[in-house]
## 1
Amino acid sequence: VARRIQNETELIQTYLAPLTRAAPGAFGLNDDAALIAPEPGTDLVLSTDPVVAGVHFFETDRADDIAWKAIAVNVSDLVAKGAEPLAYTLALAFPAAPEAAWMAEFARGLASAQAAFGCHLIGGDTDRTSGPLSIGVTAIGVLPRGSFVPRHGAKAGDHVFVTGTLGDSALGLALHRDPSLYGSALTDGDRSFLLGRYLRPSPRLAMTSVLRAYASAALDVSDGLAKDLARLAGGRGIRVSLAALPLSPPARAALAANPRVIGAAISGGDDYEVLFAVAPDQLADFEKAVALAAVATTRLGVLNGPPGVVFIDSEGQQVEIAATGYDHFGTA
Amino acid sequence: VARRIQNETELIQTYLAPLTRAAPGAFGLNDDAALIAPEPGTDLVLSTDPVVAGVHFFETDRADDIAWKAIAVNVSDLVAKGAEPLAYTLALAFPAAPEAAWMAEFARGLASAQAAFGCHLIGGDTDRTSGPLSIGVTAIGVLPRGSFVPRHGAKAGDHVFVTGTLGDSALGLALHRDPSLYGSALTDGDRSFLLGRYLRPSPRLAMTSVLRAYASAALDVSDGLAKDLARLAGGRGIRVSLAALPLSPPARAALAANPRVIGAAISGGDDYEVLFAVAPDQLADFEKAVALAAVATTRLGVLNGPPGVVFIDSEGQQVEIAATGYDHFGTA
C-alpha cells in the first residue's frame, strides 16, 4: 500500500520547505506570512491563476507536470507584462492526504519550474477539500519602475506579433484524450511534442526585456488567439491571414490530415505565447532586439480601422470563427 | 427564478471591478496581472489563506459574511506581522454560475472588509469547479523596511500577551451548528455576539505599530491558543493559568453552564487575536503604547525553562489538553 503523508508538518517541512531555501523571506514556511524586500526603483507584478483538477488538468496527469503547469501559467502572465519571475505562493487543497510518492514528484515539478523560471516558493497554505485537487498560485514578478507593459496600450498603426507557434497545446489536449487521433499523419515524435506543449508550457522568459523596451501592449495567449487578439486590439481592428499563423511542423502535419485543425491555432487556447504590439517607429530596433533574444516571433498584422478581429483565407475570404474563446460561465 | 450571472465579463465587470477603483495598479481588472509600486523604504508582506465551503464556512452562510471572513483571516496574518493591509488578489472557484443577488451581497461583504481594513482588490481569477465554492485570497501588506515581526523571535524571559478574548469564535461555531446550545445560560445578545465573532472576525489593526515597535515575536491565533502558543514559545516553555485566559462576558456565561467551555479558549481556534512576546526591558514603553492603541491585551505568562505549554487550574494542577489544535491531515 502506498504511504500517505501523515500530517501538515510532514507535507510542508518535507516537501515544500526545501523549495524556499534561496528565499529568506519565506522563513522556511515557518511563519504566517512571507516577506518581500523590493529593490529600490522596481515595481512588483502579481498574477493569480489557480488550476483545478478536471478543469485545467487531469487528475491522472503526472504530479510533476501538474506542478510545472500551475507555475508556468502564472509566470506566463508575468512575462507578458515584462516582469522577471521572483517568487510565488502556493495554496494546495487536497481531497485526501496525498501519497508520499505523489507529493515527492509534485515537489520535483515545482523545483524544475523554479529552476527554469528563476523564482522561489515563499509561502502558502495546505487544506483539505471535498472537491477536486486545487492548486492556487500567486506569482510575483519584478521590473524596473514604470516599465509594466499593459494589455491596453496599442495604437492604430501598431504592428502585432506573437511568439512561438499556436495551436500545439490544443492539439496536445486532443491527443491526451484520444492518443490515436490523426492516425498515421502524426509520428510518435509529433505526438510527444504536442502533448509536451500542453503539459509543460514554456513561458517566453527571454522576451521580458524586449517587451519592456518595445511593446506598446501585450498579453499572453491563454484563451485562444481570436479572443486575446480582440483584447489587445481594443477599439481597433486587425485582419489576420490564416497563412500567417505560426504553426509547428507537428501542427502542420495534423492540419494536412484535417483542415479544421486551424481552429486549434485560432481559438484553442492554453498557448502561453506572448501577443504584443509594436509602434511603427520602434520596428527596426525591435527586430534587432528580438533577434538577439533568439525568440521566434511572427507578425500577424497591423491595428487599424473599425474594431474587430478578422481572419482571411488564402482566397482573401473572411473565415467564420465558431468558438471565440473559453468562458467559464458563458452559456453560448 | 433567481437570475444567475451570464458570463465572466458580467461577474468581473459588474461585481468585482468597482472594488478596484482606488487601486490604479488593478487596471480595473482589465489586465492579466496587477501592479504594485512599493514606497521607498518599505517591505511587503504576503499572506495566502484560502477558504473553502464545508471546511472554513457553511455554504448557507450569508455571502457578505463569507466575503468578509475570507479577507479577514488573511488580514489577521498581516496584522500579526506588523503590516498595514494594502491590497489583495481574489481567486474564486464556483460550482455553478452564482446568482446575481448572491454575487451582489458577496461584493458588498468585500467592500465592507476593504473599508474596515484599508485594502483594495487588485487582481484575481474566476473559475468553475466540480467541488465546493472556494475563495483564494492573497493579501499584501506593507511595513517600514526591516520591521517585520517574526513568529520565531522570542527569548527566554519575554512576556507573552494576547489581544482581545479567546474562545468566542469556537463557541459561535458551536451555536451556528446548534442555536439552542447552553439554553437559558445565554441571552439572545450573548448568542449574537458569539456568532458574530465566528462570522466576522476583526483583526486587531490598531496593534500593527505597537507590534512593530515592541514585539519580539508574534502570530495570530488561528489554530487554537495551545498550538499557536507552542509555536511562539519555540524551544522555551510557558505556564498559563486558566484564570488568566481572557474571556468575553458571553463566553463566561457559557463557561458557567459547562466547565468544558474552557476548551474553546485553549484549542478552539479561529480567534484571529494576536499572540506576541515582549522583552522585559520593553514592558514599560509597551504598556504605554498599547494603552494609546486602546486594544485590550492580557499577559499570559513568561517564556522560560524547558519547552512545553502547560495550563494550570485554580488549584495549581496541570490541566490535560485533549485537542492541541487543528491539523487538516492529522490522523490523531
## 2
Amino acid sequence: MKQLEKPLSNLLERVKGKAVKRIVVAAAEDKAVLLSLREAMKTGIIEPILVGNRGKIEAILAEINFSVGNTRIIDESNSSVSAEKAVDLIKKGEAEILMKGFVGTGPLLKAVLDKEKGLKKNGTLSHFALFDIPSYPKLLGITDAAMNISPDFNEKTEILLNAIDIMHRLGLEIPKVAIVSPVEVVNPKIESTVHAAMLSMMQKRGQIRGCLIDGPLALDNAISKEAAEHKGIHGEVAGDADLLLAPDLDAGNMLYKSLIFFAGGITAAIITGASVPIVLTSRSDSEESKFMSIVLAAALD
Amino acid sequence: MKQLEKPLSNLLERVKGKAVKRIVVAAAEDKAVLLSLREAMKTGIIEPILVGNRGKIEAILAEINFSVGNTRIIDESNSSVSAEKAVDLIKKGEAEILMKGFVGTGPLLKAVLDKEKGLKKNGTLSHFALFDIPSYPKLLGITDAAMNISPDFNEKTEILLNAIDIMHRLGLEIPKVAIVSPVEVVNPKIESTVHAAMLSMMQKRGQIRGCLIDGPLALDNAISKEAAEHKGIHGEVAGDADLLLAPDLDAGNMLYKSLIFFAGGITAAIITGASVPIVLTSRSDSEESKFMSIVLAAALD
C-alpha cells in the first residue's frame, strides 16, 4: 500500500476481513463509551468484556437499549481496581484492546505502566491520531497531540517509532514522515529543528528503517508540494506527508484541535507503545471519532 | 466596536476614511513586493517611498506595468544600507509604515533595533496576524506565529500587550483574549498553562487592562462555546476569543499554517512593537495576504 486512502471509514472495510477483536473496558459504567461500543458491535468487529459497577452498567445498557447478549460483565465498583482487572485480562490473553471507561487517565495508565502486572513494552507510551481532513488528499497521521508534554530526543524517537509501527500495521509499508518545525532550516536556537535534522539523518543512515523522513519542515512544506517548491525543497516527503511528528504537546495539540475545529477534520486516535492499543476517548470527542477510534484499534495487524 | 467583523477586506473600508499613509520600502527591488504595492496604490490608501537599486526597481516597475508617478526612489544598492536609510526616513517622520523588500530579515531588524538610530520602543518586537477563517464567525488575531522562538514570561506579556494595542488601534475596545495551552487546567509541568494562569490573574488584578483574559484554554475551548461548556468553562472569553496567545513559536506557527493550508484562512500580518508597523511578508504568502498586510498596517489608528 502506497498511502492510506480516504475516507477514514475505509478502516472499517479493513477490519471486516479480520478475526473479531476482544475489547476490555475499564470502568464500563460510562454512557458515551457504551454508546460507541454499541455502534462498533453492530458492525461485528468487536466483542466487549465490561469491567465495572454491574448495576450501573446494566442501567445504562437498558437506557440506551443496548442488548449485549452473553457479554461478560465483571463486577468491580472501584474504578482503579477495575483498570487493574482489565489490564490483567489483557495480560492473560483474553482481550486484544483496552478501552478507558469512567476511570481517570491517571489510574488507567498506572495499571498499564505497572512494571510487573502492566502492559508496557520498553519504550514510551504515546498518542497517535489518524485524520481525514477535507483539504488533504489522503489520511494523515499525527503524533503526539495528547500525551507527552515535552519529550526529550530519545522519547521523541520512541514516539515516532510507535507511530511508524501503527502505520505499518495499517498496511502502509513506507510512510513518508515529516518532522514539523516552525521553519524548514536548521536553527540551533529552535530545538525542534535540531531534533528534525537528527531524525532525518538517522533515517538516511539506516538507524530508523521502514519509512522516509524529512525535516525540519514547516507545516506548509510538509503538506503542500507548492509550498515546498517555493522554498526549494524537493524529495518524496515534502508536500506529501503520511505522518507528522509535532515538536511537543503545545504544538501537537494546537494542530490536532485546529484540524477538528477549524478544518473540519475527523480523527481516530489511540494510545500506542503498550502491548495492546488503548482506546482513550475524551468526553469532548465527537461520536464518530469515538467509534472510529475503536475501529482503528481493531484495524491493526 | 464589539468585535472585528469579517471579511478581512473590511480593513480596507476602515482605511479609506484616513489620511494616506506613507510606506517606505527597504530594498524595493522585489517583484512580489512591488506587485502588492501596486494593488495597494490602486486603492489610494498608501504613498510609497522606494529605497533600493534604482536600475533594478525601474526594470521591475516597467515589467509589471506599474506607473509610480512622482514616487520618490532613493538609489541604494547595498541592501543593509537600504534598510538603514528606510529606518532613517521613518525616524525623520517621512513615512508611517516600514516594509521589507529584497533584504534579509536579519539586516532589516538590525536597522530597526539599533539603539540610537532604530525604531524600537522598550518592549519586544512580535508578530501579529489577523485571520479570516471560513469556520469562525469573526476576525481572529493570533500572536506570535513567526518571530519569538521561546519567549519567557516577560516577553510573552509584551507580545500580548503588543497584540492588544493593535486590536485597540483597529477599534476593538475590549478584545477577548484566550491564552492557549494543550489543556484547560493548570499543570505545573506544562509551562504554557502556568503562564496562562498568571496572565489571567494579572488581568483580574488590573495589571493588564483594556481586555478580558481567560486561560489556560485549549484551542477548542477558546473558539467553540460548545467545547468550552463541555468542560464546564463559562465566562465571556471561552468560545468567543478575538485574540489567541500561542505558547511559543512551535505552536503558534503550527496554528498559523494549519489555518492557511488546511482551514482556508486568509491572513494579514505585521511586526509590531516598534514605533511603526513593519510589513514583512514572506515569499510563500499569497498575493492577497501580502496586499492585506499592507492594508492592516495602514488601518491602525
